[in-house]
Amino acid sequence: MRRPAALAACAVALVVAMALAVAFGSGSAGLTDLLSPGTRGYQIVVGYRLPRVLLGAVAGAGLAAAGAALQSVLRNPLADPHILGVSGGAALGATIAIAAGAGGGSILASASVPVASFAGGAAATALIASMGRAGRTGGSAILLAGVVLNAIAYACILFVEALAEPGKLQSLVWWLMGYLDAPTWPQLALTSACAAAGMAILVADAARINVLALGDEPAASLGIDVRSLERRALFACAVVVGAVVSVTGPVGFVGLVVPQAMRRILGPDLRALLPASILAGAATLVTCDLAVRLLVPVVHTEVPVGAVTALLGGPMFLVLLVRSKAR
Known about the structure:
Oligomer: single chain
CATH topology of the domain at 2-78 and 176-326: ABC transporter involved in vitamin B12 uptake, BtuC
């Protein structure tokens, strides 16, 4: 009964968070404006808040799912797309594409940025995974490699920014902070489709990924093709992270905080942990974005949601790191 109750609670939290995020914001429009087509309030709710809330839900769900899967595949409870450099690699790919003039309103024109983002995220994921396998490195070494990879990726991003046109530089800087804005419907459709495909692969392989916790040899003796499963899971994570980062920029620590919280409630079984992380991750990022929008009249600017998630996730990462070393 514990798992169904937890999943139901996460689903309710997501519905409530999305309803509040659509109803409230820096403006005076509300849910009742949905009944008044053609009005300014209707345009705010449907044209701006709704796609932004949907993007937040997709991004939060995807990052949390990728974090939960990476923690299981790499057998490291501190694994996170942002910490391991996957988001940094995806951001570098997207930055190069944006600086080169990619993107646009149609699905075909918008696809170039997610493709470049996926390529960067996939390269970073493959590098981290190969280092972990080749050297049999421990959790701390993999995390250190991720930090170094992040530093290299952001150094390359700074180089690209220095060469970018002045008109694109400001938007690139803002995007790299981790920013949720109202996407175009083609952007939202493409991002949602890629993230859903990646999460579907992870959910379908959840039971087999569980077996990896036993080790390579025991998993292989049970009929699991370990390397094929790892490649498939890492590919799915790269698809999800690449799609999300191409639109929102690198939003950190959602993939660490949410799976860790759900793991404490439900345990390590991915068959329950993944769906719960998907729902809770969506609710978490939507709630953080709502807080950002409600603070606009107070601080007179919109704080990037990536700053909020970093403030929440950074201290938790330090606590988890200290506990991990103590063990």
